[in-house]
Design goal:
Strand order of the largest sheet: 1-2-3
Shape: globular
Oligomer: single chain
Order of helices and strands: HEEHE
Helix content: 40-55%
Largest sheet: 3 strands, mixed
Number of strands: 3
Structural class: alpha+beta
Number of helices: 2
Radius of gyration: 12 Å
């Protein structure tokens, strides 16, 4: 998969998870990709939420890996 396709797939994954975050007043944005690690930023009520790390692993990372299996992990940048 080429770089443009990979970035498109990451955005598709974030678009899939975004409605769930919007339900609780939050959002997510793509920041960067380095060495198959996706950097994201949470917004709104996701900032400081006590379950955002669970959301990151079980929701965001799993969805990103569904669209782009070569991704090693997804991390939140502050």
């Amino acid at each position: 998969m080429g770089q443009k396709e990979l970035l498109d797939n990451i955005e598709k994954a974030l678009n899939e998870i975004r409605p769930y975050l919007h339900t609780d007043g939050g959002d997510i944005s793509f920041v960067s990709l380095h060495d198959d690690v996706v950097n994201i930023k949470f917004h709104g009520t996701c900032i400081g939420c006590n379950v955002n790390q669970m959301t990151l692993r079980n929701g965001v990372e799993a969805t990103v890996k569904k669209y782009a299996p070569q991704i090693k992990k997804v991390v939140e940048v502050k």
